[in-house]
Specification:
The complex is a heterodimer of chains A (421) and B (279). Helix content of chain A is 30%, strand content 24%. With 421 residues, chain A is an alpha/beta fold. Chain A has two domains: 207 residues, Enolpyruvate transferase domain (UDP-n-acetylglucosamine1-carboxyvinyl-transferase, Chain, Alpha-beta prism); 208 residues, Enolpyruvate transferase domain (UDP-n-acetylglucosamine1-carboxyvinyl-transferase, Chain, Alpha-beta prism), CATH 3.65.10.10. In chain A, a hairpin with a 4-residue loop joins strand 4 and strand 5. Chain B folds into two domains: 168 residues, 3-Layer(aba) Sandwich (Rossmann fold), CATH 3.40.50; 102 residues, 6-phosphogluconate dehydrogenase C-terminal fold. The two termini of chain B are 32 Å apart. Classes of the chains: A alpha/beta (421), B alpha/beta (279). At the A-B interface, strand 24 of A face helix 6 of B.
Chain lengths: 421, 279
């Protein structure tokens, strides 16, 4: 689908969709807890659907009530259906469930879209080799057989935190105690904190000291009810629209959140953006933004939209420690640079950073982003500042994380038409 | 977006005022007073002193000129337009200008022919009012050179101005239907006023029917003379059809044909009531 945007400011109110990161974790934890758990403020997108389908393979029953998921969990991980798991394009699904299904004593085969299979997985390859599991990967699938055992797991801190989270889900169910040793300073620690928080709410205790996670064995997940927070990484798009173009109120959002992407609030404040915390949400006022230096090592997913903010800010914005942006649905260092340049913004790209020269208005015309949800949404928000009509290709990519994105875009005064290819 | 207006009259001013809330609007007019007035009324963000200055400040440019001036203006300035510019005309006739403009087109420029079927019986930017577009009809006349994106941009802007129906028509279809819905109605309105023999002080005896039928006789004469002449064949055909209908009335009156009159009125009423069904 192509979307033709008649650029103009956005203003109004957006109900921010629930946090995808919390959703994955809550579904998995509820699935491992025998009995009924209810997850409120839920929304199922392509990635969440992949996690649900994977949990159903171990006999979990999940009912989707629209805004509620009712999860009937299992106490033992037994692959009750076939042993093929389609992770579609969801890195969270693949990395979270691989250690969990390694509790099943079955051979399990994981498949997914080519872009998923290109994302780094060597951490698990390494772990499997050290702990006596068989790990085989080609460009279409990953095969794992053998059983996870208690012990000491070494994980480098520079890789995706999803590997650590995956182990944290699985290790408490083993007969013995385990430790996870993080080799270097842990990037994206906030996501591991979120995992530990969810585990705690489902009765699992994890302790962390000096880069070591201590996981007692023989623990039991306890069914629980949980309300999912609004997603700060999705809020970031309309927050950016608010400070770039007009006042936008984001509802369903918790200021005191463990989501690492809540850092978008700090970034906007550092750029001189006006943020008003209200009872019904957070109001982002149109502001004269100033460029600044942003370290995105802990919040790579909001890197592209921070780059758009920088493009609309006065002066230069530098996005640092951004190497992990290269290993997302697209190489986001490159694809962010590509869309900003298409909007006429000057960008210098290195292996780990972006230097963005802000300008008051953007060009428009054809924007051909990588088919990557966050890049497409960033382009649509950048369009608010464009002087010409903007045609964005691959707009359907938003379905991955925010299927309602363009409806919300319209509800705050965005004007667009879906065009045939 | 950056919108340009060439010609700040009633229509140019109304389009500017309708789009200004979401867009940056720059306007050019040969009369600097029109630009000053539009600025003071808040219809535009900026005035351009020359067409060239306007071309640098706008990406979608509405040419709000009389039909014969549209082609002349475009031909004179086409080389100065920046690549990617979308030009939009708003003239009330189409076949007479489409071919002339297409002959001067550049490959890197889009020209979208359109007709906002709206207005009021006043002249000049002083009377501009975006409310005249609310729920009105907007016609787009696509050409083979138009990209879907340029056409949709113009349609989208029309909806943004408040137009209710946005419809595509060919130039010939446009002129044929407009000869009836717009031009013939003006001819009749003018004829009603013109046929007053002046024996009475008419103003003391008019009611809503006279007022409704003659509002549009308060006409912008130079503009409408051009519109009529540029669509002469269609308008003549419509006048002919209208004359037949008048003749029929005349014959029924002469023949004291009560049933015939009744029937004709009932039929016309039925057809009129179907026109805006669902509105």
């Amino acid at each position: 689908m192509n979307v033709l945007i008649t650029p103009g400011p956005l203003s109004g109110t957006v109900a921010v969709p629930p946090s995808k990161s919390q959703m994955h974790r809550a579904i998995i934890a509820a699935s491992l807890a025998k009995g009924k758990s209810v997850i409120h403020n839920a929304a199922v997108n392509d990635d969440i659907a992949a996690t649900i389908a994977a949990m159903e393979k171990i006999g979990v029953k999940i009912i989707n009530n629209g805004t509620q998921l009712i999860v009937n969990g299992v106490s033992r991980v037994v692959v009750s259906d076939d042993n093929f798991i389609d992770c579609n394009e969801s890195g969270s699904t693949l990395r979270f469930i691989l250690p969990i299904l390694a509790l099943s004593r079955e051979k399990v085969i994981y498949s997914g879209k080519p872009s998923l299979m290109k994302r780094p997985m060597s951490t698990y390859d390494e772990i499997c080799r050290q702990h006596g599991l068989v790990y085989q990967q080609n460009d279409k699938s990953i095969m794992v057989s053998g059983t996870l055992t208690p012990g000491v797991y070494q994980v480098p801190g520079s890789v995706s935190s999803q590997f650590i989270s995956g182990l944290l889900f699985a290790l408490p169910l083993l007969k013995g105690d385990s430790e996870i040793h993080i080799g270097e300073p842990l990037e994206s620690k906030g996501y591991v904190d979120m995992t530990v928080d969810i585990l705690r709410r489902f009765g699992i205790a994890i302790e962390e000291k000096n880069g070591v996670y201590f996981v007692r064995g023989n623990q039991t997940y306890v069914a629980a009810n949980l309300t999912i927070e609004g997603d700060h990484s999705q809020m970031a798009f309309f927050a950016a629209a608010g400070v770039l173009s007009g006042d936008v109120l984001c509802k369903n959002i918790s200021v005191a959140s463990l989501q690492p992407d809540r850092r978008i609030l700090d970034v906007i404040a550092a750029m001189n953006g006006t943020i008003v915390t209200r009872e019904d949400g957070i109001l982002f006022r149109k502001s004269d933004l100033r460029g600044c230096v942003v370290d995105v090592s802990q919040c790579p997913d909001i890197g592209p939209i921070i780059a758009v903010l920088g493009a609309g800010a006065k002066g230069i914005t530098t996005i640092e420690n951004a190497a992990r942006l290269k290993y997302k649905e697209s190489n986001r260092l490159q694809t962010t640079t590509d869309i900003l340049r298409a909007f006429g913004v000057a960008v210098e790209m290195t292996e780990t950073s972006l230097v963005i020269h802000g300008r008051p208005t953007f060009e428009g015309g054809l924007i051909d982003p990588a088919p990557d949800h966050r890049i497409v949404m960033s382009a649509a928000i950048a369009a608010t500042r464009a002087v010409k009509p903007v045609l964005i290709k691959h707009a359907e990519a938003v379905n991955k994380s925010y299927p309602n994105f363009f409806n919300d875009y319209k509800s705050v005064g965005g004007i667009y038409t879906a065009m045939e290819e | 977006m950056r919108i340009g207006i060439v010609g700040l009259g009633l229509m140019g001013g109304s389009i500017a005022a309708a789009l200004k809330p979401r867009h940056r609007v720059t306007a050019y007019d040969i009369d600097p007073a029109a630009v000053s007035l539009a600025l003071s009324k808040g219809f535009i963000d900026a005035g351009a002193k020359t067409p060239e200055e306007l071309f640098g400040a706008a990406d979608v440019i509405y040419l709000c000129l009389y039909p014969r001036a549209v082609d002349a203006f475009f031909e004179r300035h086409v080389d100065q337009l920046r690549p990617g510019t979308i030009c939009v005309d708003i003239a009330g006739v189409k076949a007479a200008i489409v071919d002339g403009i297409r002959a001067h087109l550049r490959k890197d420029i889009q020209f979208v022919f359109s007709h906002p079927v709206a207005g009021r019986e006043k002249v000049g930017v002083a009377f501009a009012d975006p409310a005249i577009f609310k729920g009105a009809n907007y016609i787009v006349v696509p050409t083979p050179e138009n990209t879907p994106e340029a056409l949709e941009t113009v349609r989208s802007l029309a909806r943004e101005m408040g137009f209710g129906n946005v419809t595509d028509l060919s130039a010939d279809e446009h002129d044929a239907i407009i000869a009836y819905t717009s031009q013939l109605t003006h001819v009749i309105s003018l004829s009603i006023v013109d046929s007053d023999d002046g024996k009475f002080d008419t103003g003391r005896f008019i009611g809503d029917s006279y007022r409704d039928l003659t509002r549009i006789a308060m006409i912008n004469a130079p503009l409408w003379s051009e519109l009529f002449l540029e669509n002469k064949e269609n308008l003549l055909a419509r006048i002919d059809a209208f004359r037949s209908s008048l003749d029929a009335f005349e014959a029924m009156l002469k023949n004291d044909d009560l049933d015939g009159l009744n029937q004709k009125m009932t039929e016309a009423k039925r057809r009129r009531s179907l026109l805006e069904k669902g509105k």
